[in-house]
Design brief:
Layout: H1 8-11, E1 14-17, H2 33-38, H3 40-47, E2 51-54, H4 82-94, E3 98-103, H5 113-118, E4 132-133, E5 154-157, E6 162-165, H6 180-195, E7 200-203, H7 233-236, H8 250-262, E8 270-273, H9 280-284, E9 296-297, H10 301-304, H11 309-322, E10 330-332, H12 341-345, H13 347-359, E11 363-367, H14 387-392, H15 436-441, H16 446-459, H17 461-465, E12 467-470, E13 478-485, E14 488-495, E15 501-503, E16 511-516, E17 523-524, E18 530-532, E19 537-542
Parallel strand pairs: 1-2, 1-11, 2-3, 3-7, 7-8, 8-9, 10-11
Antiparallel strand pairs: 4-6, 5-6, 12-13, 13-14, 14-19, 15-18, 16-17, 16-19
Bound molecules: alpha-D-glucopyranose (GLC).
């Protein structure tokens, strides 16, 4: 953190809304922007989050559910229109909440007018807005690159007799960021939304932005990519060095940040970037040598780390050490691309994970529904929607289960859409009990735990922006750390094991339990120390 007061994006909590799945307001079984407006009081008053990140709502053929953008400066009729978007921004701002939107610079839809022009002829002025290359002499694609959704990253275009590059789906051609016209046009997109009052961007797939100029083949890779969720054998069989995390990614990111900085005098804006980079040294470079790139390069470490005290502590400490001076950490335990936290690690563990997320030093991003401990939905093969799952022909790759509609109540449609309307994806199997209404009424619920954590965080300078110090003298299976800002001091104790353990730390002597993940105890800690039950987490206020 620099001098002076921390920014909203440092002290605040970001909440990710996947618009398709949050609230349907017009009876088509798909969530929309009006639906988000209807739920602002939930987000602000009931829950108490600070910023909303909206996944894409732009006009799109929905090959990748909006991550295939056909117009960067409008709203898909499925989600509403620009007037509704403006209303959402005003309504959020009126409540003191910020709006962060998804910006997808790496690729657009093959229906985007830019690509339609580009593919119309080799001499079209937009030809070089995308990445075209000749076939090899045997007719095969220009490189051996395999995309994260499986298969070659190249598609042959019959009309003009060349291949075009698409890291993701065939329907998502990659923009050529080496072309200054593309840069200018895409930076204007940022200005368009900044003028409309957005407070920041979550920038998609930044690791892929630049590609090797010489289009060299990726070398082979043996074994599995340890830190990565598998993307299938073919993808994992390559070292992705020529289309992933290139050194020249940083220049266009600095250009994006410079645009945000043009608006900084009006109000502080944030650039959050999606980076699946797990080499922390390489990852930390995205803060920028002069802290002039991303304020929050997404840190996905907790999504892949084995759920034990040693591994989690080692990860957090390594992240703290990797971040450049003046850089600010951030943490994520779920998003629209990953299985739900409860389904990954278990229900009790998800409570500890929530306590971890909301008490670490850094900005937390909370995925919608994780505040309830929503589980992955069970999606029958014939209802599979995700192109990744469909393309791989394998449900294990489908991201549908984590994108199930938000469960608001115990009705058949969970309050997500009107009765009798079929939601675009089935609700999670336990939605009759795991929903906002039921959990609001239960003092021990995950929702009430999340609310209490958010409240505590808001009231505490130590938790919002204080220092982080891991504690060494704790039993195995426990991860403990102190957070402090002046006199405001907390000790967080997290159990990663089934058995109870007793802790005797010197400063527990004069301490008070502020919150347990079980929501069933408070009060002073006696001379005998404190017993931590299996998978319990405690926030302890130090005297
Ligand atoms: C990012 C998004 C993911 C999308 C992909 C391609 O990884 O988070 O949902 O499928 O980019 O746009």
């Amino acid at each position: 953190m620099g001098h002076g007061e921390p920014h909203w994006w440092q002290t605040g909590v970001v909440y990710q809304v996947y618009p398709r799945s949050f609230q349907d307001s017009n009876g088509d079984g798909v969530g929309d922007l009006r639906g988000v407006i209807q739920r602002l009081d939930y987000l602000h008053e009931t829950l108490g989050i600070d910023a909303i990140w909206l996944s894409p709502f732009y006009p799109s053929p929905m090959a990748d559910f909006g991550y295939d953008v056909a117009d960067y400066t409008d709203v898909d009729p499925l989600f509403g229109d620009l007037a509704t978007f403006d209303e959402l921004v005003s309504a959020a701002h009126a409540r003191g909440m910020q709006i962060i939107i998804d910006y997808v610079p790496n690729h657009c839809s093959d229906q985007h007018p830019w690509f339609v022009e580009s593919r119309s002829s080799r001499t079209n002025p937009k030809r070089d807005w995308f990445i075209w290359a000749d076939a090899r002499p045997d007719g095969s694609p220009p490189t051996n690159w395999i995309g994260p959704f499986g298969g070659s990253t190249w598609t042959w275009d019959e009309t003009t007799g060349q291949y075009y590059l698409h890291i993701f789906l065939t329907e998502q051609p990659d923009l050529n960021w080496r072309n200054p016209e593309v840069q200018d046009a895409m930076l204007d997109v940022l200005r368009f939304w900044l003028e409309r009052g957005v407070d920041g961007f979550r920038i998609d797939a930044l690791h892929n932005l630049m590609k090797d100029l010489e289009l060299r083949d990726n070398p082979p890779h043996e074994g599995t990519l340890a830190t990565h969720r598998t993307h299938g054998e073919a993808f994992d069989s390559q070292q992705h060095i020529y289309e992933f995390d290139l050194d020249d990614n940083h220049e266009p990111i600095r250009a994006m940040r410079a645009v945000l900085d043009e608006y900084e005098a009006i109000s502080p804006r944030v650039a959050i970037g999606e980076l699946h980079i797990f080499d922390l040294q390489r990852w930390a470079r995205y803060y920028g040598d002069a802290l002039d790139e991303l304020q929050l390069p997404f840190n996905f470490g907790l999504l892949n780390t084995p759920w034990n005290a040693t591994a989690v502590r080692a990860l957090v400490d390594a992240i703290e050490a990797a971040i450049p001076l003046g850089g600010w950490p951030n943490y994520v335990i779920g998003n629209h691309d990953e299985p739900r936290i409860v389904s990954r690690i278990g229900a009790a563990q998800a409570r500890t994970a929530m306590m971890l997320l909301l008490t670490l030093r850094g900005t937390p991003t909370l995925y919608y529904g994780d505040e309830l401990g929503m589980r992955d939905a069970i999606v029958p093969a014939e209802r599979m929607q995700d192109p990744w799952g469909i393309r791989m022909g394998d449900a294990q790759f489908s991201r549908d289960p984590a994108r199930a509609p938000m469960a608001w109540d115990d009705s058949t449609t969970g309050g997500f859409c009107a009765d009798g309307v079929e939601p675009w994806l089935p609700l999670a199997p336990d939605h009759a009990t795991t929903n906002v209404a039921a959990q609001s009424a239960d003092p021990h619920s995950m929702l009430n735990l999340t609310r209490a954590l958010l409240q505590l965080r808001r009231s505490s300078p130590a938790l919002k922006s204080g220092a982080y110090h891991p504690a060494d003298d704790v039993p195995e299976g426990v991860y403990a750390y102190r957070r402090s800002a002046g006199d405001d001091r907390y000790l967080i104790l997290l159990s990663f094991i089934d058995q109870p353990v007793t802790l005797h730390l010197p400063d527990l002597h004069d301490a008070e339990i502020a919150l347990s993940t079980s929501m069933d105890r408070e009060g002073r800690v006696g001379a005998g120390g404190v017993e931590l039950r299996g998978h319990e987490g405690l926030v302890v206020r130090l005297g």
